[in-house]
Amino acid sequence: MGSEGRVWNGAGVAAGSGYGGSVEAKATTAAPADVPTSAASVDISLPLPEMSPHIIGLCKELVKGWSSIDSSRFSIETVSGGITNLLLKVSVKGNNGNDSSVTVRLYGPNTDLVIDRKRELQAIPYLSAAGFGARLLGMFENGVVQSFIYARTLSPADMKEPKIAAEIAKELRKFHQVDIPGSKEPQLWNDIFKFLKKALKFEDNEQQKRYVKISFTEIQDEVKELKDLLDILHAPVVYAHNDLLSGNLMLNDLEGKLYFIDFEYGSYSYRGYDIANHFNEYAGFDCDFNLYPDKDAQYHFFRNYLHPDRPSEVQAQDMEVLYVETNTFRLASHIYWALWALIQAKVSPIDFDYLGYFFLRYGEYKKQRDSCFALAQSFLSGLRNG
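Request: output the structure for the sequence above.
Response:
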């Protein structure tokens, strides 16, 4: 839910699994090359014509070979005004008449309340060096410059196509194997409890009427109980994308190449959470959670995730472990984005019913809660008696 589809960004390669077909990060990930940085910032509230000279100046400063290009040869267009970003395509007309393009991503206002920019910027150079996302060309105070990727953004319906689902699974395994330096502690629960603390009252009377219906004591109790249950599953910790919706997946149909983009929510987290969060996004923009993949579709994904080279050789018990893990973390994904929506409802300038989205995600959590808890508890009971 954190980002929206757009035509930009990069590719993937890296290495890692754990309990039930483990995903161990490679001991070393190639160190990224030095990336140019600038202390400059761009006022995202400016209209594009007023913003353009600042953007051109940044590109001249950060993009290799562009410093001496006359400003008249630059053109800028909006790729997308996403939920947490403004994306611009900056092109330069070459002497041969061909354009050379980059993407400039500007952070949206107040997004630091839901996105840890320090964490993101620490990871991007390593993900870029490992082949994920667009190639990182430069960083500035409130954004980044990256290579422009010619590919189409997937639709929610695309994700469940068996061939594409298999490629997503294989690429996700590679992503989970990237080694990002620093603490490997999972951040999911830290982020959820942080969101709980930041959920504030509303000044708007109509929003406040809906807001008072929310029981934060109930949510806190639910989070603690869910965390206690999931801790017992000992899910492998990996570097997770955490926002693998269709808008963050791109495909070059001619080359058959799949790209993961937008790593704003990336962190060390749980394997099952990242997969479950992706499955929840099968619901699409209409949030039809009846589209959540059935067991057969999930097993197809798991086979390609656990053993990309020989999916048919995956052991049944490994798939069962991942099935239980994923379908319990399914609940954590609903809680995370429900609380995210509460914060956005308070601070986001975007015309979107974030409060309504909170009730939708928390309602789905409550709808699925008992069956997901029962699945995990039955599995754990079988292990104890086994």
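The chain has two domains: 48-147, 152-385.
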